[in-house]
Amino acid sequence: MSQTEVTRVKPALVPLGTLIGRELRSEKVDKPIIRYGQAALAKKGEDYFLIKPDCQRIPGDPSTSFSVFAIFDGHNGISAAIFAKENLLNNVLSAIPQGASRDEWLQALPRALVAGFVKTDIEFQQKGESSGTTVTFVVIDGWTVTVASVGDSRCILDTQGGIVSLLTVDHRLEENAEERERVTASGGEVGRLNVFGGNEVGPLRCWPGGLCLSRSIGDTDVGEFIVPVPHVKQVKLSDAGGRLIIASDGIWDALSSEAAAKACRGLPADLAAKLVVKEALRSRGLKDDTTCLVVDIIPSVHPLLPPSPTPRKKHNVLGSLFGKRSQNSSSKRLSAVGAVEELFEEGSAMLAERLGKDFPMNPDSGLFRCAICQVDQPPSDGLSVNSGPFFSPSSKPWEGPFLCANCRRKKDAMEGKRPSKPTISI
């Protein structure tokens, strides 16, 4: 391959007045109030979290605000968790076209989350460090909640009527048969730890490396079949609002989703987060890092009221939003009764199914933009829709968007189309 200078094409600038005008002409949204709380207890000190309630799609325009909340549960060190916390949000936002209206922005967000996760993983692995991290990454824009996750941290939604919905998928090999099949098909081995005498103990793990998870960011010492491609779910709440509980597995190993939601109903977010951690500690003891974020999405027409001095009287808004679960509501699915609309869900690990098929090109330079790293390159230096996989010419043609050479190699490695050479830690 010829050495070609990689350049970045500056996107055409859109006047601020034009962008604000688009927002005003788009669907008017009465934004909810966001209240949040955080609590944690450290065992190994590898959990990190991100709280950014004041992001803006258009810098300087408060009407375009959105919020980001995330949990990063590191393992084998803290470097991957810290790196993801510091870089993931920017990598996601860089994959969304500039000048997009709110509706276009929300529609592009699931794909941008995939690109951002993969780009963050590539950048971290280039550092040569072997730690890894789970990620549960939540974006709240108005009543729309988008959640992307790898690993076994979890985000649940508790809505009016006490209906609890899981917005993430656990990527534990022990519990996810589809992920076990994908890992073995990509060249990994799945099995339990062998001890003296040939007895197998503990949960299912991926070998080499011995990781219990099938998806994460980092983990250079494991095979590339441990992928950073997130499960993404996007829902729209009704104007009754809801509560999100985002937590590391230190919570979920001790409490079910329903138990965590029930434990803190009727409490403001800051106290709710503390109570969830306290309940997990009471149930199981401190066996792992335990981190919890509670985010309340509350109608702006109903300001928060102070807690009632009489516990029996639940006149505050939080009490009405997150009251006791009805005995007749046993469904765990997103409920029509709660008027929660599912907009998008996809969990495939195949980039061809997650990144679309369009080819962004700068008409002046003729350069294509990589769908993952957002670097502009000539088409001869990347992977196009008509070319076969770089390492597997016998396979069917690539049916995804343009990828640069580096991201193309990452794609093929994740799919088992080239041997990966991890450094195995003993």
Automatic annotation (TrEMBL):
Residues 28-297 form the PPM-type phosphatase domain. It catalyses: O-phospho-L-seryl-[protein] + H2O = L-seryl-[protein] + phosphate; O-phospho-L-threonyl-[protein] + H2O = L-threonyl-[protein] + phosphate. CDD domains: PP2Cc (cd00143). It is an enzyme of class 3 (hydrolase). One of its GO terms (molecular function) is protein serine/threonine phosphatase activity. Its EC number is 3.1.3.16. Keywords: Hydrolase, Magnesium, Manganese, Metal-binding, Protein phosphatase. The keyword Cell wall biogenesis/degradation does not apply. Its cofactor is Mg(2+); Mn(2+). The keyword Cell inner membrane does not apply. InterPro entries: PP2C, PPM-type-like_dom_sf, PPM-type_phosphatase-like_dom. Belongs to the PP2C family. This is protein-serine/threonine phosphatase. The lineage of its organism: Eukaryota, Viridiplantae, Streptophyta, Embryophyta, Tracheophyta.
